[in-house]
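Your task
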Amino acid sequence: MAGQPPATRLLVISQVYVPDPAAVGQYLADAAEELARRGVRVRVLTSRRGYDDPSQRYPAREDLNGVEVVRLPLSSLGKATLLHRVAGQLSFLFQAIFRGLFTPGLRGVLVSTSPPMAAIAALVIRLFRRTPITYWVMDLNPDQVIASGHFKPSSPLVKLMDWLNRRILAASAEVVALDRFMADRLRAKVAHNPKRLADLNDKIHTIPPWPMLAGVEDQPRETNPFRQKHALGDRCVVMYSGNHGLTTPVDTLVEAALRLRDDPRLVLVFVGGGAGKAVVDRAVAEHQPPNLMSLPYQPLADIKYSLAAADVHIVLMNESLVGIVHPCKVYGAMSVSRPLLYAGPEPSHVSELLDAGTIGWRCQQGDVEGTIAVLKEIADCPQAELGERGVAAREMLEAKLGREQLRGEFCRLVERTLK
């Protein structure tokens, strides 16, 4: 069996972890469990409360598939205000630093970007324990808060975050970006220093997030329990599933759905949570359209049914966020053999996938008329053609973005730091 000596321990620092539904936590759990299977002793420091729903409480300590999970109190106070988020993050960081400094047998730290300041904990632990860091970049800040208009480039917080980015990039033994656009943005942060840029080029790797539902069998429309439960019938279901944030604006699609409310062939289903979902909930409450549905996050065990209930999956991206966030939900759609409806800028990771095969459609943010035309085209599309596009998406995923291949590549990088 591959792995390290028994005394080797990898510390994973993340505010979110399964069973919390946040994508960052799910990917970290999948990697941590694979590393544990390979013989690495993995300890995860995470929050005891749900990130999106702080009323959700998890066990303080447990073993999950060979991974030791330690959940810290008062580490998530919800997302109601910026103050709630920052207070929860700071509490988490202080506790993670203290626990990390006294973790026995520590040989390495794996840290991502939840919370955005998680790198501070990794840097402090490295300073005193001399442990190598693997930095898994899931999104970029302060780039994201600048692009969303919450902060100006001259803000002290933005300057602090940029300094932190330069420090963690310099200190990490390995850096993993999710796509080439994100890797280019990371290089730009140190481009003013040729020595640091050369160092980063030696250790940066582009590894897309792998499909979490690889190998899931398709669920026929007529027997899919999700379609039955929500009375979707024979209508063409166009679904958005996941976090509804400022990076994934749904306004154009919601307006298009309201304009198409009298078309009985089509229903748009929005599954998940987040601040951006208020647009959907408000439209449902005010207009009660028969072709618009808002549902909460689904249990992890039922996601295979909810994803397969769609005929087409929506992938969204804000025009200014290419390389800042990565649309991970595209892999869930492709895993269950469903075509895509992409609303976002070009070029991007998703547009490059669409360029590589006939696996979906495109529309533009803000173009309601164009989106209506595309939705009508989807409604007119025979089930056989929808199926062909979905199969093409699944085949592309298996050929280029396989779970075993990408997860294995990532785990080998982490193991290399533990030697």
User: Anything to note?
Assistant: The first strand starts at residue 9 and ends at 13. The two ends are 16 Å apart (CA to CA). The chain has 16 helices and 14 strands.
